[in-house]
TrEMBL record:
It comes from Microlunatus phosphovorus (strain ATCC 700054 / DSM 10555 / JCM 9379 / NBRC 101784 / NCIMB 13414 / VKM Ac-1990 / NM-1). Belongs to the amidase family. It comes from the Bacteria. This is Putative amidase. Its EC number is 3.5.1.-. Signal peptide: none annotated. Pfam families: Amidase (PF01425). SUPFAM superfamilies: Amidase signature (AS) enzymes (SSF75304). The keyword Hydrolase applies. The lineage of its organism: Bacteria, Bacillati, Actinomycetota, Actinomycetes, Propionibacteriales. Residues 40-423 form the Amidase domain. GO terms for molecular function: hydrolase activity.
């Protein structure tokens, strides 16, 4: 498989704090940097297909290398760019206003340089982008182009959406870091959400250090309403996996190793019984499916996007099986899980640590099902990412180690609503304990 040469990519994936320092010292010529970045994207985006829409003039006039650039998943409205929803038959809408998250980041000085490719309606099985870091692995979905645009160095941060794991899988598979923000209804203004009751927007950065630098340099915590983090010398961390479900041995080993290193640093680790929450995953997927039908069902017969791919149609139609009465019951159960886990993460734990998934990352040469199960799922098919979504929690996902065949194994950190500061600090801690992960790549 074709890949971006490491030497080329390294120039445009410098740690953001270091790049700013070098630019301020005159060690990076700004005009030359921008010209070379435009040339780099022109040459390599056709290979990895990160962007649905990219305009060289935006990069040429950007604040780089002093400032930072952002791309947006193509289910998020940005004024001046068409929104395609990943629909391959030519659908376009032309928003007059940007989504709330795009307006907030623009006001903080982050320049949009493109719309990132997405699976069709964020539900389809065809993954449009290729993994620039681990070419033998899938770039996953649905925020596929968001992860690829950041990992490739085409932009500094990307905003995706996440209802079931859609920023966490692509980020980790591409060796990057994802922060799903606390779900709030106002965050979905201008977002074509798959599942409003589970969904939130989130940020993908190359490393926890880059995410932390962006968060603090651009005042994103204040802009996005996060709580200032209280510094804790001893974090209370609950390590949890679904009872009775088998993890791949290397995933289990990675989770144990991270837990041991945290305990060695004086943090308090325990293994709470959360079987009651894990057992709600089938409900979560049914809820997601019904809301996907509510949100995208009208597109099934929309002449602007006919025909949708068969896999997308099936994923959308699946939700029609859930009655209004059943939907109301699912929402009631979701509220119970959400309230109970939020209390747990306030009173008993600061964080929950969960593997990204039970198995290793998907290979690039296989076809995979839609994120929405089209048949009644059983326990072995239920993902681990849906727990945080169902409970409406913020969650951060990062790679912690490479498997024996060179695939990144990911960890999720869950916190109470509003605790994004804490998640970023904890991710920096975990990343430091797992060094030199970010220096390793598949050969």
């Amino acid at each position: 498989m074709m890949s971006i040469p490491a030497a080329e990519r390294e120039r445009f994936t410098l740690p953001l704090a270091r790049r700013r320092l070098l630019a301020e010292r005159g060690a990076i010529d700004a005009d030359r940097y921008r010209r070379e970045l435009v040339d780099y994207v022109r040459r390599f985006d056709p290979q990895v297909r990160a962007f649905a829409d990219w305009r060289p003039a935006d990069l040429e006039g950007s604040p780089l290398p002093y400032g930072c650039t952002v791309s947006y998943k193509d289910t998020i409205d940005v004024a001046g760019f068409p929104t395609r929803l990943g629909i391959r038959s030519g659908y376009r809408s032309y928003p007059s206003r940007s989504a709330a998250i795009a307006s907030q980041l623009s006001a903080r000085g982050l320049l949009c340089v493109g719309k990132a490719a997405v699976t069709e309606c964020a539900l389809g099985t065809e993954r449009p982008s290729l993994n620039p870091t681990y070419p033998d692995l899938s770039a996953s979905g649905s925020s596929t182009g968001s992860a690829v645009s950041v990992a490739a160095g085409f932009c500094d941060v990307s905003v995706g959406t996440d209802s079931g794991g859609s920023i966490r899988w692509p980020a980790v598979y591409c060796g990057a870091t994802a922060l799903r923000l606390t779900p709030r209804s106002d965050r979905l203004t201008g977002v074509h959400a798959v599942s409003p009751s589970l969904e939130s927007v989130g940020l993908i950065a190359r490393t926890p250090a880059d995410l932390d630098w962006l968060w603090r340099t651009y005042g994103l915590g204040a802009a996005l309403g996060a709580e200032p983090s209280l510094q804790r010398h001893r974090l209370r961390i609950g390590v949890t996996v679904p009872p009775g479900e088998r993890l791949h041995s290397e995933v289990a080993d990675a989770l144990a190793a991270v837990a041991d290193r945290l305990a060695d640093r004086g943090h308090v680790l325990s293994h709470p019984d959360l079987g009651w929450a894990w057992r709600q995953r089938a409900d979560a997927w049914e809820l997601l499916s019904r809301e996907a039908y509510d949100g995208f069902g009208a597109l099934l017969d929309d002449t602007r996007c006919t025909p949708l791919a068969a896999d997308t149609r099936l994923a959308v139609e699946t939700g029609a099986r859930t009655s209004d009465a059943r939907y109301a019951e699912l929402r009631r159960r979701q509220q119970q899980v959400s309230s109970r886990l939020a209390r747990l993460l306030t009173d008993e734990f600061d964080l929950l640590a969960v593997p990204l998934e039970k198995g290793l990352p998907d290979r690039a040469d296989r076809q995979y099902a839609s994120v929405v199960p089209t048949e009644q799922p059983d326990a072995v098919d239920l993902s681990l990412t849906i727990l945080a979504s169902h409970a409406r929690l913020p969650v951060l996902a990062l790679p912690v180690v490479l498997s024996t065949d060179g695939a990144p194994i990911g960890l999720q950190l869950l916190a109470r609503p509003g605790a994004e500061d804490l998640l970023i600090s904890a991710a920096k801690l975990v990343s430091a304990l797992c060094q030199p992960y970010h220096l390793q790549e598949a050969s």
